[in-house]
Please model this.
Amino acid sequence: MTLFPGVKLHVVTGKGGTGKTTVAAALALSLAQAGRQVLLTEAEGRQGIAQLFDTAPLPYEERRVALADGGGSVYALAIDPEAALIEYLEKFYNLRRAGSALKRVGAIDFATTIAPGLRDVLLTGKVMEAATRDRRGGGRLYDAVVLDAPPTGRIARFLNVNAEVAGLARMGPIRQQADSVMNLLRSRQTAVHLVTLLEEMPVQETVDGVAELEAVGLPVGAVLVNMVRAPLLPAGSLDAAAAGRLDGAEISAGLKRAGLEPTDRLVAALAAEAGEHAGRVLLEAREREVLADLGRPRLELPLLADGADTDGLYELAELLTEQGLA
Amino acid sequence: MTAPSNDIDALLDRARVLVCCGSGGVGKTTTAAALALRAAERGRRVCVLTIDPARRLAQSMGLTELDNTPRAVGDVDGAAGGSLDAMMLDMKRTFDEIVLTHAEPARAQQILTNPFYVSLSSSFAGTQEYMAMEKLGQLNREGRWDLIVVDTPPSRSALDFLDAPQRLGRFLDGRMIRLLLAPAKAGGRAYMKVLSVGMSVFTNVLTKVLGAQALKDLSLFVASLETMFGGFRERAETTYQLLKEPGTSFVVVATPERDALREATYFVERLSAEQMPLAAVVLNRVHRSAAPELSVQRALAGAEALDETGEAPLAAAVLRVHADRLAAAIRDERTAARFAGAHRAVPLVQVAAQAGDVHDLDGLRTIGAELANGPEASAPVA
Model:
């Protein structure tokens, strides 16, 4: 069972610090199971994917970064707007030489600086090209494309390239390109997933992000809650713990039974730690309710004790698969 | 490893500009606000410029209106003679104001309605960084404050805002701009003659890709900008110089996580290369344990022993919470030590993980106190 049948382009956004790139990579691995070919792209020049897979910085070239079960592969591509523009000019106008001339006079830098909307069209255009390749066009064919997109605060604007370009170019090829990008992004082949933590600000940004995406007609996919910690206290003790009313005598007796010396200091320190833990669990429960109100599929990924190394990525990918994302 | 207890206070008492930088999601805005509040309550007239504060934090500071002007924050303890003003950056408005200052009204109107201007001034790439620095320059020139604390935009890389002013300055002075100006200046068809070959290729491509109307808009925009060239470049340069003046200090904010520390490292190295003074690295969300003497292993063994009999579920759970917490504390401490070892000259200030988000002045005061005095509860775990 999969939550998103027919989706070919998975866009992953999230507030800074929520682990957006890690989740995007895990999603790509999850999608690559059973022999599928997946392209993982990043659009912000951060080289986050290379760091995650512990490889050299990615060139503007599709490179295999990981293998999955059953012969599946994850390829990665760091999209560079300049290279994308030259490729675009070459493809549509046979203007490769003009492209390098433009680069020499600084025209490309200029064009992408003065009209950032154009840069976004180039970035999303490249993603679209990879997602819609067919046998005739050449190039590697992918079963799915994952985009590690800009953060939640900018995502609607970044994806809504149509609006950005409409003011600049009312007709002409760039406009056409923007239109076809929009057609793909608004279609059932695309899902925009939002990565969040169970904390106030990321949750608020997620709620805002969902509203903004809906407002411009972009398909919201799942809410991916990252770095979830297992509650360690019995549910019945949470309120008491948070209010600092845990029964010290009970803890003390238990410690003794466990062969530990229950000094007053130790009991107080443990109760204080339990109190902070409970406060956090209660806060997380409230944030979870806010996310539930969004009415979107909600998937949870645990906090990895050893950080998101490559083994951790496979673990997260497995959990995404189990929860039906891929 | 933690800075001597009065380092931060000494900094707050003498600095004129404090720039807080770091990657997104590390608590930069909260750190900036906490430093500003503490400086104000120590008697200085302070202005804090925030970029994108959490809603409730913004409300608690009275930042309900986004009007691009500093407003006094209520409930600040002014006993020492200080005050706190706060503002949220409105990027587009800041840009509009520069245009209005530097161009005559008719020309300004032409610029403000040009689609290329609209795109440039409201996009987030680079412009936000530049406008934050521009606003800092403006506030500084006003001369109303002893100390200005700036929170930098959540850049994809913390370095962006350092480069943005110069990049925009360079850009406005660049060859492309001059090439594009040629047609508008010469006017009519004659302009083709003055163009280099590169330029005609360029206009050719642009016409093909964007359409003729867009090219016209672009030329007009660039021509209008020309009147403000000098102004723009000069401003970008003075702001950059301000960042190098004595009295300006940087605070790099990070968390004990790999990505955040990597960004922090880049920043520390860059500041040192630019000879810009780094006052401290603030490590937010550091876990600490109140009972480091009970080791992770003993706590877990105890919990397991209790599980077997099922007699004391609460004590078992409490022991697990402790083991989890102490393990996190040890990990953070190791991470901090590694960072400190690699950057011996930089004071590292640690702030404990807060139970919830900070959204009132009291929360900011607690953080401010911890920044200055270190953790009240317990020493970091060895």
About this structure: The first strand of chain A starts at residue 9 and ends at 14. Residues 82 and 108 of chain A are 6 Å apart (CA to CA). Chain A has two domains: 9-229+303-322, 235-277. Chain A touches chain B through 79 residues (CB under 8 Å).
